[in-house]
Every structure is written in structure tokens, then in C-alpha cells.
Amino acid sequence: MFWQAGMGLILIELFTFFLVVGKIGFFKTFLLWGCSAVLGIWLVQAQGLATAARIQQLFDEGESPASAVFESICLLIAGLLFIFPGFISDIAAFALLVPPLRTSFKSLLGKHFQWTEEKQREESGIIEGDYIRVEEEAPRLRDKKNPDH
After folding, report:
1. How far apart are the first and last CA of the chain?
2. What is the dihedral of CA 44, 50, 53, 59, to 10 degrees?
3. Residue 87, domain member (yes or no)
4. pLDDT above 50: residue 24
């Protein structure tokens, strides 16, 4: 299924490329294609460095960097999409570079993949409960032969 999706993306990218070539010409299309890739990689690098600094700051403050890690994964995917030649992949990559769209994407994934503490406890085999420590000495069983034991 992965290969079919990959082939479908390649066919859509080729169709879009030839459509744009027919509208504005080959040289302008190639120039637009190259400029979008260079601009995209530069934006990914700049946002990636800012996200890495924020992750470090969250670690220093003792907070969970989960949100920043998700953003860094989105930036990684955006960088890979910019490497893949084509306009559709560049549009998807630019969408991942817009912070409000990343937040919407995160909330959409959060609704789809809900991971609650209760579900985590069920899967890990942890049983939650309360206990009371009793500080009483248990009665000793005495052997009839050795009463001092």
C-alpha cells in the first residue's frame, strides 16, 4: 500500500509539473520549483533551530517537551517533502511550516489517536490501588521443641 501511495504521488506530481509547464513555460516552472525548495529548506532550518532551543529550554525547566517534539517531527517531514521534487509536496511542506496549521494537525491527530493514562495503565499491566501500612508485629509461630525461637 505504501508503494501504491508513493506511485500515486509521483504521478500527481508529474501531472502538476506538466500542467504548470503548459501554463508558464519550462524555464519559469523550473525556476519556481527550485526557489520554493531553497526557501522551504531555509525555513525548515530556521524553525528547526528555534524548536531545538525550545526543547532544550523545556528540559531545563523540567517540563514535558512533547509538543515541541511533535513540531520537530513535522519539520522533519516538511524537510523530506521539500527534497521530493514537485509542487504538491512543496505545498504540503509549506503547510507543515505554518504554526497554526501544525497545531490544528496536532489536535486532529490527538482526537484520532487518543492515548489516555487509563489506557496506558491497562496496556502496561499496572494495577492502581490504595494501601495502608500496618506497623504491627505478626505473631510468631512457636515450635513446641524450641520455645525461645
Report:
1. 73
2. -90
3. yes
4. yes
Query: What cell does 113 get?
Result: 489517536
Q: How far apart are CA 87 and CA 91, in angstroms?
A: 6
Q: Judging by beta carbons within 10 Å of its beta carbon (0-12, 13-18, 19+), is residue 96 exposed, middle or buried?
A: buried
| Domain contains 120 | no
- Measure the CA–CA gap between 103 and 96, rounded to whole angstroms: 10
**Per-residue pLDDT band at 135 (split at 50, 70, 90):** low
Residue 60: predicted pLDDT: 87
Give a yes or no: residue 146 inside a domain: no
Give the separation between CA 146 and CA 67, rounded to whole angstroms. Answer: 66
Give the pLDDT confidence score for residue 114 in this predicted structure. 59
The answer to pTM > 0.70 is no
Provide the domain limits for residue 76: 25-107
Query: Quick one: cell of 7?
Result: 506511485
Asked if 108 and 139 count as a contact pair (C-beta separation under 8 A), the reply is no
pLDDT of res. 113: 64
Would you say residue 58 lies in a domain? yes
Asked if the model's pLDDT at residue 50 lies above 70, the reply is yes
